[in-house]
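tokens incoming
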């Protein structure tokens, strides 16, 4: 509805109403959560840091509940399509020991920070693609992020039949050079493709998946070739 209206004021009102209904009606009526105010506090914290590493103990300290409660509440928020989790990929990557998920929002339009919004937008489209490819029988696909204990990181890894397929690093601006971590993880994972995605570059007619070395590609070009 906000997309069809093309009205910022309508969109703001719609988002506020949706948020209120989610916590004050939907979750209240369908779950056994008693302290809805603290659950809403958790949601607000997650909404301010989409794409950040999620440490349950830190969230528990902030919200003043147990780690088990945080874990259960995040599952509830995911079941109501408020957010979703992306786990780290660890197979065949030396010292990739971190287990914290990254949590993203289904409604990325409410994110204020341009960099976070860009990463969340790409995450959602990649997740939609892996669900579609799996559902129609192309194979078993998964979406992960990559990070080693020495803090080398790439935003996303898409796997096919449990094997690395392609890497994605998201940039809000117009990068002039490819990040070294794409080269590092391309070698470590054996993925076939690596894309540094720019949201500011205009669409170009290029087959992204014909390249086996890291390339800079406009977001519109890559997304048009997913689903």
């Amino acid at each position: 509805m906000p997309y069809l209206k093309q009205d910022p004021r309508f969109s703001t009102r719609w988002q506020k109403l949706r948020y209120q209904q989610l916590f004050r009606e939907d979750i209240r009526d369908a779950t056994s959560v008693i302290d809805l105010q603290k659950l809403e506090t958790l949601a607000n914290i997650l909404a301010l840091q989409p794409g950040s590493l999620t440490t349950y103990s830190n969230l528990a300290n902030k919200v003043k509940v147990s780690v088990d409660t945080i874990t259960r509440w995040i599952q509830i928020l995911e079941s109501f399509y408020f957010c979703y989790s992306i786990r780290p990929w660890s197979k065949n990557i030396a010292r990739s020991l971190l287990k914290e998920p990254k949590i993203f929002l289904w409604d990325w339009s409410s994110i204020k920070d341009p960099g976070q919004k860009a990463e969340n937008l790409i995450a959602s489209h990649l997740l939609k693609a892996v669900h579609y490819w799996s559902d129609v029988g192309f194979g078993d696909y998964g979406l992960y992020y990559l990070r080693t204990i020495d803090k080398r990181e790439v935003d996303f890894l898409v796997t096919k039949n449990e094997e690395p397929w392609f890497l994605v690093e998201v940039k809000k601006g117009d990068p002039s050079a490819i990040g070294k971590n794409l080269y590092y993880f391309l070698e470590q994972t054996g993925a076939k493709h690596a894309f540094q995605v720019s949201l500011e570059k205009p669409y170009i007619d290029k087959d992204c998946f014909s390249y086996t070395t890291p390339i800079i590609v406009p977001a519109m070009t890559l997304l048009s070739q997913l689903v």
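note: The CA atoms of residues 166 and 193 lie 5 Å apart.
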